[in-house]
Amino acid sequence: MITGKYPNLRLRRSRKYNWSRKLVEENNLSSNDLVYPIFLIEGKNKKQVIKSMPGIYKYSVDQLGVIVNKIIKYKIPMVALFPSTPNNKKDKFGKEALNENNLVCRAIRFIKKRFRNNIGIMTDVALDPYTTHGHDGLLKNNYVKNDETVNILIKQALIQAQMGCDVIAPSDMMDGRIGKIRKYLDKNKYQDVQILSYAVKYASNFYEPFRDAVGSKKSLKSDKKNYQMNYANSNESLREVALDIKEGADMVMVKPGLPYLDIIQKVNEKFKIPVLAYQVSGEYSLIKNGINNRLIDEEAILESLMCFKRAGASAIVSYFALDIAKKIKS
Ligand code: PBG
After folding, report:
1. Residue 9's pLDDT band (boundaries 50, 70, 90)?
2. pLDDT at 25
3. What global pTM score does this model have?
4. Domain residue spans in the chain?
């Protein structure tokens, strides 16, 4: 409700000085609100550039100590692990997903052994890093089979939990997978492992630098529109979230981020469940290249992240997490 009117009321009065602007600031970003994604590669002593994502690297498992130390130092609560699987370990079924010694499994064990519960680990449940066709599930006549895929995903989730993963994050968009994964984890006594459902994941053009980073870009011949959501839709996102909450999700993700603030706000208002936003690779690279080419100022990073908080996100998965956490601290 607006009370008062000009000239008695002048909203610019509180904007005059920095102290005053801070005093009436409605939202705040802290390093507690961030999740940092880490890309993994095979080998030893490796830190590899990702061309499409300037400033982001892929790490071999033995190099994770340095980066995770930094993440803890800057008080970021959780990392998200993504493997860049070598082509010779991919097949059309994504079998490598169920290998207890795959990159993600080794990385979970490495981090948990050194850092115990001083950092949370979240891992993706989906088959795309492991399939030769680059899709998140089993492919038949160019269609990703739902129930057959879910039967593999529950096993992938269990293995990750057994390795010590704290938060299982299915990003595959198969119907019914949250309930099936919850049931399977519980049956095997992992009832304390959390599920962060990528409940609302759009078939987006903003994922391309990520697909380049994990090596699925070239193999992916078609789009993911028969399982990821149509970006024209809004109500459908609420149905997705409602189902996943019933099936046992502890938190839900909206992805991509900035173009979907309306969805974050709606989900937050309707369901009162923690909503995470994923500021995806394409968003990162556009902003980063804009800054590198002096088209926009660096403060655009803070602005973009604050917007998620304003929309109602509990936390943000962002490739800027470490940069911004350093900034917040200083
Ligand atoms: C795949 C997955 C994707 C991302 C995270 N998990 C890409 C896709 O669905 O093709 C994208 C993340 C990003 O772009 O930063 N399960």
Report:
1. very high
2. 97
3. 0.97
4. 28-329
